[in-house]
Structures are given as structure tokens and as C-alpha cells.
Amino acid sequence: MEVWLSPALGFDYANATARIYGDGTHPISWVSFADVAEMCVTALRHPKADRALIEFGGPESLSALQVVACFESIVGRSFTLDHVPKSVLRSQYEAAPDSMTKTFAGLMLNAAYGDAIDAATIRTTFGLQLRAVEDYARQAVGKAASV
Length: 147
Description:
It contains six helices and three strands; from the N terminus they run E-E-H-H-E-H-H-H-H. By secondary structure, the protein is mainly α. A three-stranded mixed sheet has the order 1-2-3.
């Protein structure tokens, strides 16, 4: 979530603007890089991770529009949204001149379609406390305000 919900990909909470891939209504299990790192370390030693395929994501599934609403409530103002239609994303994917460009176009297209998982198994099996979007939003907005 730290990358997708940052100015680098058009989610500029300091200026209340957000790029939305697709219509923004499909849920995504936003996950923190710190949680991914913790899961990797846990998986090295946990017997239930041995030779297992582990579906991993954040603790809740929120649409991009729900994420925007979360940030709006924290910053206290409405965001200006820039929707990138699925058709444009699909065209970018199909016209990609190299594998790197195709990968990024594919990731944006995937975000438009959503990517939700049930993180209950992660919490119960591996005992991880996953970071919520709201927690990230409060921290990110707080840092931006102090700069």
C-alpha cells in the first residue's frame, strides 16, 4: 500500500488528488511492505509454511474509492479523482514495448479489476497483526503535515 497509495502512482494525499484505475469499486487487499517482510521471516520458520502456497494480502478489502473516503475523512477535504478507464489500461498492456512496461500495465489493470483475499487464515495460522489502510493513512497524512 505504501507504493500504490503514494504520489509516485498518482495518490497524492497532501494535495487531495488520486488516480483511480478503472471505476474504483472493486476491492483490493491493500498490504503493507512491512507485513510482507514479516510474513517472509515468519514463513522461514513456521511449519505450516513449509512447501505451502500462501495467499497474502492486507487485513481488509477496500475499493479504491473507499480508500479515498478514508483519506478524505482524515485530511478533512474532498479529493479530485482522475479515473483511468480499463480500456485505456488494457490498450497500454497490449501496446507495451517491453516486459517491464507490460508488467506495470498489467499491475494497473489488475488493480482496476480488484484483488481481494480473506486474511483471516494469515492472522489465525501465522499470528500476524496486519496493518490497516486507515493506520497507514493516519501515519502518511501526519508525516505530510509535519513537513
